[in-house]
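Catalogue entry: protein
Contents: sequence, fold tokens
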Amino acid sequence: MKKTLIALAAVAATGAAFAQSSVTLYGVADIGIQDTNAPGSKLQLNSSSTMNNGTSRWGIRGTEDLGGGLKAGFNFEAGLSLDNGAAGTFSGNYFGRNAFMTLSGGFGELSLGRRLNPAFNTAAAWELTGAANYSAVVSQFGGVLVGIRTSDMIMYTSPNMNGFVAQFGHRLKGDNGTKASNDLSLRYGQGPLVVAFNYNNNAGGTGNNKHLGASYDFGGFKVAGAWIDPAGTAKGFSIGGSTTVGTVTLTADFVRDTDAKDTDFVLEAKYPLSKRTFAYAAYLRDGKKKDGAFKAATARKDVGGFGLGIRHNF
């Protein structure tokens, strides 16, 4: 009897240990019909293109409680084509979207590996479409986000201090080719107001990228704007608004490169089907003065893209 009780206690202890760890499967299924007026373009079905709201993907993330307030975690994320079931690789790698480990606690979070960088997180904090694939900000000033993801990155994220979060990413010289790179994000979000600033030389080239953006939610109407100054000759701003009519959310966002005298804009409508699924329609105009989402300068004309799709988050 005594041995039986000891065995049961051991099993219970093992179960408690397993309860301190968790692994989650998650992802996005996004597919839609889309077309542009670029030469040679045809109406087609896509799940990971510019006119999708998001890129279809799946991932695994997990955490383990190490005790003393410390947790270890990991995240692996891969692209997935709903067109034909093929793997959608990024940078030629299967888990090219995310592949990193974390150590977190009262001090914040330290992560090592490839993931969305502080520059992207800064823009996503205020951008009106939720950093959709058809974002006019990305079309006009994608360079300021330095590729959205960074490999071999050491990143620290501070605890949330009354709405303020600081995030710093560093890539060592040996991983960056010619020199080390840095990426700093300062974000504040409390109530209806969001303000975010980024400074980076994440590409490792000459010069640096800077942008400062903000949004304010008045309840039935939300406005957002930003000052954007990428490395090189490009420079400009964005301004837009979003409102809800019934259950449909309507968004318009205009982004101007004042040096190139080029304007990109997006019009978006989203209709919620449930808490995790929504239908969307979007129109993105890429100005002809410089390359953007549809490389309009190459086509030597303003290029417009239209997308009609559905997105499910799981």
